[in-house]
């Protein structure tokens, strides 16, 4: 910045002194005017800054590609019969004993899908112990701050009825055990609390360590309980019971299903141009829409929130300021104890340990053959960077929708600000889509991959390691990228994979919960 001075010899010396002092203090008083535009302090970094596309050459080629009628592509062809069917009723299942050993309480942390798996495990442990299960208590997630209970999310009467021949379940404890609460266990060491259940504990561990507590006190409370039951070396009837809970007993409450059905219907039968301009186009009648040919749609689960971005320790294009800001966030939330932080971005991407950004998942979908005519439903809570990050994805897929665009504020009133209920709606829509794809591994990805495998539905599982390596290659052409993506995803569209030891039964339900047809 250049200042021009003019000589005024007739002005008093005092005036010159004041002017000189002002010039000296000006940079101090307004430092932002004298700071290079390329520098950003981590304290002033905002995740809402517009980030330039990191794969501009690929993006331009994808946008220049000719649109085709995606519905004529084999992309939309449903999965062929793979020779497996659901198999949940074991001939060896013992009948429910007339008397129980006592009441079993579990306290579940995590988000919707981690808690969902914990509920399934709780039913299985109750069966192993011949205990009466109290409807599980869902802890408030420290990140999402959602206090929704089991009964706020799931149809409790349906849950109890489906499992009535397998496990005794009660909605609440009888008065004689009303003292057994979360607050009671938070204030002191209690004989009825089991707080050291190992991760993936065996059935024998519960018989040896929890059964005696039930028999002595009539009640046992396990906290924490997430991931506390092994996936291996369990009787077939216990494995099938876990799947029965997951795929049959856990259904969402009516208002979540109703909103999910409305969203699915609006994706299948989008309003016409004249209707879309109307202020109440969301209320177009079913009869009018049903005259249209139903359209196909993809559900994209975009797990790209600040927690995911920070925990991954990957570079997302925001420069040094963003790296420092995310490192500070990691220190605040996890005390810096993040395994990935010891690796470079290149190492993490080569190993497939970085979540795909909205830009990258958009390029993947475009390379697979989806185009601007594809209807895309964005299942996500809070995207790190907001609309600034999503804009590239929206440019590739202008028909992208979400809960807010498809449902009125009145329809969303009961789920507003409640992360578990918002996720439940996304789960429901994901189970009714033609194709599901997730931008990163995680509990929602695992839960829907397993559920859709159980129902033989097409699900794209991104090859994270391959994509990480492709995106590191700044010289790759669009043709080379498309060919590599196509080859790397030939058997990742929902083809059934048998569960291996230590793998989750909720992600790989065969062969434990599925039989050869």
TrEMBL record:
Stored Pfam families: O-FucT
Keyword Membrane: yes
Single Gene Ontology MF annotation: glycosyltransferase activity
Pathway per the UniProt entry: Glycan metabolism
Topology of this chain in the membrane: Single-pass type II membrane protein
Subcellular location: Membrane
Alphabetical keyword list: Carbohydrate metabolism, Fucose metabolism, Glycoprotein, Glycosyltransferase, Membrane, Transferase, Transmembrane, Transmembrane helix
Gene Ontology CC terms, in alphabetical order: membrane
Keyword Glycosyltransferase: yes
The organism's place on the tree of life at top rank: Eukaryota
GO biological process: fucose metabolic process
Family: Belongs to the glycosyltransferase GT106 family.
Record-given protein name: O-fucosyltransferase family protein
